[in-house]
Every structure is written in C-alpha cells, then in structure tokens.
Amino acid sequence: MNNEELATSRSHWSKIKGAVQGAHGFRSSREEKKSDNRLFIRLERALKNFGLNDNAGIEYDNNPKEYNVIVAGPPRGGKSTLIGSLCGRGINATNIHLASRQKEVSCFVKTDQHKGFPHNVKFWSTIGLDPWNKDSVKSYIHDIVQVHSPIVLLFCASPLTVITKEHLHWLIDSCIEENILCALVCTNMHARVRRNTVSQTFNEVLQPRTANSYSLVPGNIDSEKPYASSITLYNDSKTNKPAVLTCQVNSIDESSSEGGHQRSGVFELILALMDLLPDDKLNEIIYMVLNNRPFWMYVGQTFSHDWNDKFLTNFRLWYEKFG
User: Fold this and answer.
1) What is the CATH number of the domain that holds 114?
2) Which of 59, 105, 197, 276 is the most exposed place for a label (fewest CB within 10 A)?
3) What would the DSSP string read from start to end of 19-86?
4) Residue 227 confidence (pLDDT)
C-alpha cells in the first residue's frame, strides 16, 4: 500500500472512529439526561427546595398551603383507610362547599400546624354526588380541577365491593380530558374471596381507551424502581402519555388467630406517584405524606445507596425530629 492509499485508509477509519465516538457521546449525554429524571435525584432536589439542605437541615415555610386529591369508589371500598395510610394518621370527613355548587360536598381534610408547617390537604369525595350520570361526573371533576388543581384521582375498591363499570368509564374519561393522573387501587389485597376480580375489572375498563400497558420496570440505565412489581401503568392511546396506574395495597396491619397481613403496597404507590407526576406535583405529594414517618424511614432505606452521606444524614435527622 503506497503512502496515498495509506493516508486515505487512515482518513477513512478516523471518520468511522469519530462517528462511533460521536454516537457514544450522544448516547452518554442522553443517558445522563435520563438519569437526571431518576426518582432519587428528583426527590433529593425536591426536598432541598422544600427546605432540607446540606447546611441548614430543615427550614420552615409559614405561608399557608392547600393541596387537593379526588377520591372515588364504591361504598366500603377502603377510601378512608387508604387516606389514613397515605397521610400517616386517620382523618375525619366533613362537608364543605365546592365552587358554585349549591350542595355541600363530602371531603376528608388533613390540617396541620406541626412544627411551623401550616398546610391543608383536602380529599374530595364523590360520595353523595347526585345525580350520578356522565354529565354530573364530568362537571364535578371539571369544577375541582378548575378551582383546586388536584394532585391525582384515587379510585378505591376492595374485593368485596361491586364496581359499576360505566361509572368507572366516566371517571377515567374525565381524568384523561382534564389531564389528571388516575390511580385505580385494589384495597384489602389479601382477601381470599374474589381477590383477582377487582384487577380484572380495572383491566377490562382500561383496554379500550389506553395503550402500552406495562409494569413499571427499570430501563437499562435506570436504577431499580422499588415499586416495579406492584404497579402497572397505562398510557393514553391518543397522546401516549401516562394516564392511569393500577395497584394493590393492604392499608393497615391486620392481626387474627389465623395470622394477619402487614401493611403493603402503600409506600410503593406513593413512590410511583412521585415518579410519574411533574415536579410541582411531587412537591405537593411531599406535603400530603409529610407526617408519615414510616414512609420517610422507608425512603431513607430505599435510597440509602443513592444519596450521599451528608444529605442522607440530614434527611434522617429531619424525619426523626419532625416526621
């Protein structure tokens, strides 16, 4: 091979090498960008914005806060029990006015003035919605969205309740139209009777209007998601954006002569919501579960290998003192 051919060959391989390096660089930058969206990074950033930082520990915001969640489902579906498990304590229901509606609406209100953190979380219930028809449901969801911008809609049903599929259709359609994430929750997941009926009903209702249902398993470059095995996500068939998730939970610790079941699935549900919702809603969920000390202990254990020691120490001091 003469000098000219050798130079041409070297130039050719240099171009190939440059293209490979360029592709690798693009892939690396894309992976780095994707890694910035990992839950432990987003949660650390949110907690720092919230007031937990490396220098001051926790700082308090004394401005009044109000956040909202919509709760739906058949009677005795486990709504109040799930709300208590999310918030870390039981909450009483009350009746309050919503927007221009003449009738009062059933609402669970979590009010706290704990350690300088005044905030309310309202769980708006569809109980007492009258008449229960498509137009009424859409109008109710629309009113809450316009006035209160809810975090999520939680639909609760236990294996011993009866789900009216048509009603669930209306709720899901309204959430998709209003761009609200909808979580369909099977409560009392360890019930021996009809334990799979609720999940099957959820799937039957979701199939015609959603696409690409899949378990929330980690991608090739994502750290393992602690809730992957218990959550299924359904994307909207039109926008291909996350629209509905389904899960099973046991909201309380049970004890019986035959052996009880521990609380399970609730913390995974919270993490899934944190992971799927945008940053502003992530901040609102932090307020919702602010006093749920067992959850924050679970978070500290889950991300103990992802957060640096200094932040992890401040985080643990925070929830041990103020959780």
Assistant:
1) 3.40.50.300
2) 59
3) HHHHHHHHHHHHHHHHHTTSHHHHHHHHHHHHT-BTTTB-----S-EEEEEEEE-STTSSHHHHHHHH
4) 56
